[in-house]
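Lecture notes, part 5. Sequence design as translation. It can be helpful to think of inverse folding as translation between two languages: the language of shapes and the language of residues. The source text, in structure tokens, appears below.
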């Protein structure tokens, strides 16, 4: 492995302060997805490294921070994510809506809900841990009404309504509003959170808030049509293997952090209430996230090329504390090696790849994630150009908690290229 560039400290918020006032401006403030990339980082990377006219791919797009910033900076973009809740918001946030379209969606919904006395029953375990029967009935009424209204609405109008429903699920539940995972804190219990909620009123309020943000964003494209933004739902490795567009010549992405975010758990209520994924797919879905600690770890194959001496050493140190965590970490890097391999064979030579990744501590051991990812990327032919380090301020990340889990307080950015001539 070649000598890595020395990481350079950077404060993206400060650097971009004249262009972006805060991380929740415009459509970025519509959702509360965990571990979102701050728009300032996305804008900076687009501005500094991506040649004009590029089509930018985000292989782990979440709710679309990179895609929104790409459109505002006039780049075409493609986003992929496994989580249908993430891609729902990414699609809504990158669609150009007119006020008439959004008003029509709300008014059709309004006409239908008057005749809808109840929705279809939800069938998942522990449902009453999270919702009162009354709240659940109201949520299912809204869901059923949207599916009826959808018959006379466009897909993008329907997605706007579903996103408004998904956005109120947590607020209407008994779970704390803070923190990525649903959890009923003492404070939430004492304040009777989720007990007497006017669900329909919350839905209308939220739809009108989302509408306002969408119109604000859409107004940026009045003079010139917006660049295209395509959103795909599924495992990024499958798309990279089979369906990547030859027009893509840049990637900006923030891959999942090892064992730090349980995307399944943090989205499970919304996925079910908005019926974004059938129940029979949930188990497989929950195990397909890169970096997850769900499922068996026995399928972690040994891939000799993936093993830098640093990674082998790390696995041995972790195994002394927790064999399972050693496997989780190992599996994460094996999966990321595969991602780099697929990126390298599907992108044009000369393409730029920016990876934003958190630095974890697992079982009390610091995981040098960016060094290890840099090693894997280099072994797939990438050239590391620059490394930045930014201190994470607030990204809906888990608080510092038990010592086995991933704790994140800083993130690194690897700026890499695929050499014109492969070595
Ligand atoms: C750090 S988050 C990305 C956040 C995003 N940059 C944003 O601003 O919203 C990582 C994302 O990777 C997704 N992910 C995890 N495993 C995946 C896989 N195998 N294929 C596609 N997406 C995956 C998760 O659903 C999550 O949305």
């Amino acid at each position: 492995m070649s000598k890595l560039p020395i990481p350079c400290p950077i404060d993206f918020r400060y650097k971009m302060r004249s262009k972006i006032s805060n991380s929740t401006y415009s459509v970025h403030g519509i959702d509360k997805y965990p571990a979102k990339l701050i728009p300032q980082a996305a804008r900076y990377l687009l501005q500094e490294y991506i040649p004009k006219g590029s089509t930018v791919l985000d292989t782990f797009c979440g709710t679309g921070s990179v895609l929104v910033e790409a459109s505002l900076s006039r780049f075409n973009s493609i986003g992929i994510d496994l989580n249908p809740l993430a891609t729902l918001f990414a699609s809504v946030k990158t669609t150009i809506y007119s006020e008439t379209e959004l008003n029509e969606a709300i008014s059709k919904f309004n006409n239908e809900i008057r005749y809808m006395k109840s929705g279809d029953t939800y069938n998942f375990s522990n449902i009453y841990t999270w919702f009162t029967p009354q709240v659940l009935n109201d949520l299912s009424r809204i869901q059923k009404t949207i599916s009826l209204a959808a018959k006379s609405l466009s897909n993008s109008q329907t997605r706007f309504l579903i996103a408004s429903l998904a956005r109120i699920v947590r607020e209407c539940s008994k779970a704390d509003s803070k923190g990525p995972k649903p959890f009923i804190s003492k404070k939430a219990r004492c304040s009777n959170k989720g007990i007497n909620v006017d669900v329909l009123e919350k839905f209308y309020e939220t739809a009108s808030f989302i509408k306002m943000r969408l119109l604000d964003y859409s107004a940026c494209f009045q003079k010139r049509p917006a660049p295209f933004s395509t959103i795909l739902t599924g495992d990024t490795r499958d798309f990279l293997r089979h369906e990547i567009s030859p027009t893509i010549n840049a990637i900006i992405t923030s891959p999942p952090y090892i064992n730090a975010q349980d995307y399944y758990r943090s989205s499970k209520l919304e996925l079910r209430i908005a019926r974004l994924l059938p129940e029979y797919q949930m188990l497989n879905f929950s195990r397909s996230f890169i970096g997850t600690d769900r499922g068996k770890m026995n399928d972690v194959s040994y891939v000799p090329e993936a093993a830098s001496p640093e990674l082998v050493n790390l696995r041995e140190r972790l195994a002394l504390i927790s064999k399972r965590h050693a496997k989780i970490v190992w599996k994460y890097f094996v999966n990321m090696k595969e991602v780099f391999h697929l990126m390298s064979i599907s992108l044009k030579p000369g393409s730029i790849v920016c990876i934003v990744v958190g630095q974890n501590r697992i079982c009390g051991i610091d995981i040098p994630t960016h060094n290890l990812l840099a090693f894997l990327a280099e072994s797939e032919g990438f050239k590391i150009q620059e490394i930045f380090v930014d201190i994470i301020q607030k990204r809906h990340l888990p608080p510092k908690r038990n010592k086995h889990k991933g704790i994140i307080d800083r993130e690194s950015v690897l700026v890499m290229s695929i050499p014109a001539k492969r070595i």
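The translated text above is only one of many valid answers, since several sequences can fold into similar shapes. The beta strands are 8-9, 55-58, 76-81, 229-233, 248-253, 352-362, 365-366, 383-391, 407-417.
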